[in-house]
Amino acid sequence: MYINDLWNILDVLSILFFIIGLAFRLTTELFYAGKILLCIDFVVFCLRLMAIFTISRTLGPKIIIVRRMMTDLFFFMFLLSIWVVAYGVAKQGILIHNDNRLDWIVRGAVYEPYLIIFGNFPTNIDCEWKQNRQYYDFPFIRTWKSMT
Known about the structure:
Blueprint: H1 6-25, H2 31-53, H3 59-95, H4 102-117, H5 139-147
Helix pairs in contact: 1-2, 3-4
């Protein structure tokens, strides 16, 4: 059967998305929805193109290597996400007290540590923007200094 193969399903899906997206682009009410469908169609078409390139003598082995590498990369990214969430929960628990807004709690525990990977430090933990702030302003350091 033609429809039992995954690649044939992608072919049919890309053709349907293209026809529906093109029809939507011809109307003014559904113009943006057509743009979204055509973008999704392009992604599906590129996935299908990857399967076609596996036949090539030069590109085929490289695509197979990348496919195998992605499985190894998935496990590394899984471990990295565990470390990022662990850091984010600890940071959120130490720096933020009694915040009832769930969206800000999740943002502080997941999104901000994700941005720290790329070097974008949030202002609540980056004290460089506070020029005249001493390190004694942090409660833990102030308590530790008073004990010594």
